[in-house]
Structures are given as C-alpha cells and as structure tokens.
Design goal:
homodimer; 415 residues; alpha/beta; nine-stranded mixed sheet; four-stranded antiparallel sheet; 12 helices
C-alpha cells in the first residue's frame, strides 16, 4: 500500500515529500484513505477538525479500539513517518479478517490532520483541536508562508472552519488508541518496540534585530549585524545541549531582507529542544536566552554600533537586541503503564517482552494520552536512524513484523 | 519627482521597496521614465538589452554626454539608491533649459535595467550585456526564485530575449557617462563628492552539506549538522575582515529542508567581500575557504558522524563537507582621472575641489568605465550611511545641490 502513495507530493529533485495539510497532495492522500475504507466496507467519518475515521463496527454505543497515524509530512520528509502507521492499520485489519476475527469492540482506523505542522508551524493540529488542547481561535489565525490562514485554507478545501474545536462526541468513540510509527533514531534493536514516554519538547523563536545596510559601503564599525549574534547562538546551543544531555537544533532560519549584498536587518532562528528531563530542557533555553541577549549586546561582535540591546529590546534605540518567544511547549507524556506492558508482552519474542523505549518525537498518541485516553505506541526499527528526510527507511520484513504485532495487539484489545 | 515614485513597489509592512527587474513595479517605473522623456520632448529609445535612453539632440552622428542611473531596487531597499540618479538627471536637464542652454553635444538620460540583481542574483545585467561583459547565453539562463529564466521573464514583458548582447551601435552614442548616486556609507562630509574608484568585490557561495534528520530523535553524536560549520564561518568571516581591513558580509542564507523540527541537510550561505585592495579580498576568501573546510571536517563540531569532508567533497561518503564557488568577481575600477579632477573642480566650493572618495558599491558607471567609456560618478551625502534599507536617506538640500552640480557638469561637458 505504501507504494500506492509513493508518487503523492514527491519532489522529483530530491525524492523528498511535500505533503502540507490541506494541500493538493494532502487531499489526494485523504481520497486514498477514503478509498481504502470503502474497499473494506468500513464506515468513513470525518470529524469537525478534519480527522478521518474508518470504522469496523459502530462505536456510537461502545467506545472502540483505534489505530492509525497521519498522512501529512514534514517538507522534504520520507515515505514512512506517518503513512506507515495508516497503511499498517489497514493491513492489520486485513490480517484479522483473514484470521476470521470478528470484533466485539468496534475497531477504527484513524488519520489525524496536520500532525507535522509543516504548513502552519504548530504540530498535531488535528488531535489537539479534537481534545481541546489547541484553541480554535488560535488555530484559525495560524498563517502559512503565503500568508493564508488555516481558516482560509480549510474553506478552500470545502470544510467549515467555524465548527472546529473540542469534539466530545468523537472522543467518546475512542476507548483505546494504538499508533504504529517508524522509529526515528537508532535506539530500537529488535524489529518492533513499545513506547514508554515522549520527551518534553518545545520550540522557541529567536529574533535577532539589527540594521539593514549596504554590504559594500558600510564599514565594519558602522554595522549592527544580527547575523553575528545568531551564529554565536547556534554554536552555543550545541555546546549547551551536550552539557545538559539533551538535544537542541536550529533547523529553520529566516534572514531579512536576505540579499547577498545587504547586511541583514533581522535574523530569525527557530530552536527545537527536547530531553528526557523537563528541567534540563528549560534550563538550556534559559541559559541560551541569556547568552543570546549577551551576544546581541556585544558591540564588538555586532559591529560597533551601540544599541539598546538585551532581551525583548524591540523598542530600543536602534531596534537592536533579541526577542525570544516560546512557540510551543509539550510536557513529558508517560504512556499508560499497564497498556504498555501488555503490548510489550504481546509483541515480544516468546517470554522476552519487546524493548520499551522513549522517543524525542511528538505524536498524536501523546496528545490523546494527555487527554486521558489510554494510548500506546509501537515502533518499527529504523536501521540508520534517519527520519524527516528522503533517506528515511525501514526494512520490508520489519514492516511486516509491525503489521503482525499490531494485528495481535488489536485482537487482544478487542476481545 | 521622487515623490511620484514613492508608491511604486513599496511594501506597506516595512516601507521598503521591492522593484525586481521586469516585475510589475519595474514596468511601472519604465512607463514613468517614458512619460518624463515625452514631457520634455526627448527622443526615447530602448536598446536590445532593455536599457532606456532619453535624448536631447541626436547622438547618431556625434557621441553624447549621458547621465542617469537605475530604477530597480534591492528587496526592501530605500527610495534613493538608483532613482535619485534618474530623477536628478531629468531635473538637471530642466535646470539647463531654464538657463537657456542648448547642447552642441547631444545630451542623454539613461536608465539601466536590473542594476541590483535582486531577482536573478547578477548585478548590472543591463550595462554588462550592453558592453559584452555578460554573455547572453548565461544571462538568459539565470533563474529567479520562482524558477523562471530571464528569457521567460523578458518574453512575458514583450521583449525579444534572442536579441540581447553587446550593442556597439548604442555604445557608440555614449561619449561620456556621469552617474549621480546617493552615497552609501558615511565617508562623504560635504553635500556632493566625486568617485575615485570602485573597490574590487565579489560574491561566493558556500554550500555546507550534511544529513537531514529528525530534531527530536537523532542523538547529538549521530548528527551531521551543517548549521554548525556555517555558524563558525559567519564569525570567522567577520574576524578575518577586520584583520584584512576589508568588509565581508553574509546577508543571504538558505537552509534545506528548513523545518524547525529537522536537522538541516544543507546550509547555503552567500559571502560578499570587498576592499580597497584586490589581494586582501582574495586572501580573505582563500583563508575562509580553508577555515570552512576545516570546520566541515571537524567531527566534534558537526555532531560525531565521520564524513568525507573538505572542500568540494560533494561526492564524499556522506555527502558532507563544503563546496565553495565564486558567483561573481569584479576587479577594481579606477575612474578616468582627468574627468574625475574636472568634476571635482566644478563641483567644489570655490577653489576647494569636492571630496574625492572610493566606494564599495558596484555601479553601471563602473561597468561602462571598464568597457573604456570615460565615466565618472557624483555622490550625494548620506547622513546616516544607511543604504539598501527603507531608512536610506538624503536631505532635500543635498539632493538639490546634487542637481545643480550635475547640471554644471553636463553644461561643461557638452560645450
């Protein structure tokens, strides 16, 4: 089934995927989901937030067991992150049917909308809206790179943005949620593992402010160049991450005006930081904020122009300094311990339970768990640990082990 | 007249100008030029490369004296860089008419196409094509951010791209060229000065290569993050520029894939370097290239993954390292010494000649000078030295002094 999706949203130059929420590629993927549901005689529902549900059995009177993941992608992402969980869900249902299994508890396949946040910057929009973790007003006002709001984009896709928000009716149908996902590091040694927790993680935006100017005629001493404190921040983030035993990444940078022949007026950089321990991540960011303010104040570094400097010094004399704002923060998610251990036993090799491991990646399963729905995750081994990249990969045999493991789990949970 | 142009291509969010070559704004500015020429009874010509010429007198039999500049802008640029020279040219002609002056030598106002290179990355496209300094095949293949070539863009604007290239017929009409321009640093102390030279300058592209990966799940030690050697390069460029007594700027950066939650696979940065002395600029770039290769090879810095490393190591094991390529190089331009001194005497205050100063900015006057046309530049004082920015400014009184100075120069040259 993954092969049916191989062409959707693929950039021929890189083989990476561009599957932004509500884009043409996303709509094509949603149609594919509808087709797979129809072919199996499943009852397709789209909730008010754009999440898709394909039901085997009627969950109106009895909460079901749901599995699934998402079909959207980070930009230039791989083929597995998201789709593997949806494809494996359908394949596990097929396997259960072959086994002659008839669910007493309704069984659902879910596809959550905009898990990656590639378009609007906020991840897990579909599941967050569903559980009420994201306010509808905030969601609708999010803008993409073209300046279009989520409200506009949903309207163009024929959806009704006024209806989004917490959806208790849909939530009531989900008794248990199990998400299968490709592992995204190299920590899983067997073919299939079980998640213990999702690391606390957050995203911060650093706006370094300076004075745009001519690159040829402005003497070094007359400059107020925000590229310099930005570069220092990048190096310091890495050093501090190693010190705190967490990960920190600068993966997105915006330079304004962005001309090769102009000293920039502003450099904005996004810091992603995560770790096993919430306090370590928080301390890293605090330290880095102080460091960036110091670098922004460092007249010798910036170029000689005295400036107002400091954090949130946007109103300062020359508009210089650095603004740091938290764009998102997700506390640690510990998955349901009983469910986790039950899955590890089912998925393990004989008497040896499967490996239990945390992850640094956010998932819809984490959002549902936070909302009080017993949730769990299965991971399929990633031989190189590469993810969010066209080189993301999982072996066919491991993917098949994942489907069998998922079928076993669903069979057990639906009994 | 500058006020008539104030609204064209202005970004209301910043008050900066976006006036890319052949854009809607550019076409509007060209129409304005045509109107100003018509209103004065000047003979308007557009050459095969899109440069505009408005003639007072017929230069077919006798080479003329030409003044002018350009109307396009860097992105988010100011109101003066370019337009001041064109507006002052028309204003100087008006002043000469008021004085009852009748040119024996034909007098022309020029507007060169795509001086800034904001759209296609190569500056002075119009004057370089005219003089043969830029090969037509190379120019036509240049692409903008949308992937459109110059050939396509010119065709859409109703021009014939097959005809571009060196134009001896037009060149033969230009006996002398004088460009008036706002000064772009703080080196000019009086209202009007005269250029001695244009610093040698060049643009280099540094492609730092690594491995795109997930920001949450990839351990620091499993990373090959090109953002880190890039950041080191930025800081080193600044330090080396101070050491060599030149200017070096990183004003444009492209991060791929550019997701906040992904370790980048590639960071491309453009280095602009200029100085009074060609050897110093060359040595700075050589040193920086070595430094970048060292940083790209620094396993501890990148994140622990061993890589092929080194300059032009694109074919290396992990595709890591750095590629450095020269995008443009312009040797020093020394303006005609006799013309320079004649202008300084004319423009000065009584017996004191005007200030003579070099500039770090490239200009069409430099391209024409290199092609052997006696050329000169007048600078109008810039109180803050800010340029290529919405805050670019010149005082009204200084602009008026510029017009008077230009009129005096033209009157003298046309005698």
């Amino acid at each position: 089934m993954l092969e049916q999706l191989a062409h959707v949203g693929r950039d021929p130059a890189t083989n990476g995927y561009i599957r932004d929420a509500w884009s043409h590629a996303d709509l094509e993927l949603r149609e594919w989901f509808a087709g797979e549901a129809a072919r199996r005689g499943l009852d397709l529902r789209e909730d008010r937030n754009g999440n898709l549900w394909a039901w085997w059995g009627d969950p109106s009177h009895r909460p079901g067991v749901v599995t699934g993941s998402h079909l959207d992608s980070v930009r230039q992402g791989g083929a597995f992150d998201g789709p593997l969980g949806v494809v494996s869900a359908f394949a596990a249902l097929d396997l259960l049917k072959e086994r002659g299994f008839q669910p007493v508890t309704p069984l659902g396949v879910a596809c959550f909308t905009d898990e990656e946040g590639a378009r609007f910057g906020v991840p897990c929009v579909g599941s967050r809206l569903l559980t009420g973790a994201l306010a509808p007003e905030r969601a609708l006002a999010l803008t993409d790179d073209d300046g279009d709001t989520l409200a506009e984009v949903m309207t163009r896709a024929g959806r009704e943005p006024r209806l989004i928000g917490r959806d208790d009716e849909t939530l009531a149908t989900v008794g248990t949620f199990v998400e299968l996902h490709v592992e995204q590091g190299r920590a899983l040694h067997g073919p299939v593992g079980v998640a213990s927790a999702i690391w606390p993680h957050g995203r911060w935006r650093f706006d370094f402010l300076g004075q745009a100017n001519h690159a040829g005629t402005t003497r070094l001493g007359d400059r107020d160049d925000p590229m310099l404190p930005f570069a220092r921040m990048v190096l310091e983030a890495r050093a501090a991450a190693a010190r705190y035993g967490v990960v920190a990444t600068v993966g997105k940078v915006r330079v304004s005006p962005g001309n090769a022949n102009a000293v920039p007026g502003q450099v904005s950089a996004w810091l992603d930081a995560r770790g096993a321990n919430e306090r370590d991540v928080r301390e890293l960011v605090a330290e880095l904020t102080d460091h960036a303010a110091g670098a922004a104040d460092d007249v010798a570094l910036r170029g000689g122009i005295e400036n107002g400097g400091g954090v949130a010094a946007r109103g300062g004399a020359a508009g210089s300094g650095v603004d740091v704002s938290e764009e998102s923060w997700t506390p640690v998610v510990d998955f349901d311990a009983a469910l986790r251990d039950r899955l590890a036993a089912l998925v393990g090799d004989g008497d040896t339970p499967a490996q239990i491991l945390p992850t640094g990646a956010g998932h819809d399963a984490g959002i549902l768990a936070t909302a009080g729905i017993p949730s769990a995750m299965l991971f399929v081994r990633n031989p190189t640990g590469v993810s969010h990249s066209p080189e993301e990969h999982a072996e066919q045999a491991d993917c098949e082990s994942g489907v069998v493991a998922l079928a076993n789990v669903l069979e057990d949970l639906c009994r």
